[in-house]
Amino acid sequence: MKILLIEDDLDLGNGVRIALADQGLDVIWVRRKEDALHQLAVCAPELILLDLGLPGMAMA
């Protein structure tokens, strides 16, 4: 399963990435909204894990 992890915190993002990869999952980790939008277009993830407090993202 391909997962797009969008998390700006280094420690949290790395920990989640490692835990998911250890379970055999394909994890693409990005830290910025621009990178997330690019990866959405090119990698077609099956699951997205999103930091709702990502800097620069407006909460509607």
UniProtKB/TrEMBL annotation:
Keywords: Phosphoprotein. It comes from the Bacteria. Transmembrane segments: none annotated. InterPro entries: CheY-like_superfamily, Sig_transdc_resp-reg_receiver. PROSITE patterns: RESPONSE_REGULATORY (PS50110). The keyword Phosphoprotein applies. The keyword Phosphoprotein applies. Residues 2-60 form the Response regulatory domain. GO terms for biological process: phosphorelay signal transduction system. The modification 4-aspartylphosphate is found at residue 51. This is Two component transcriptional regulator.
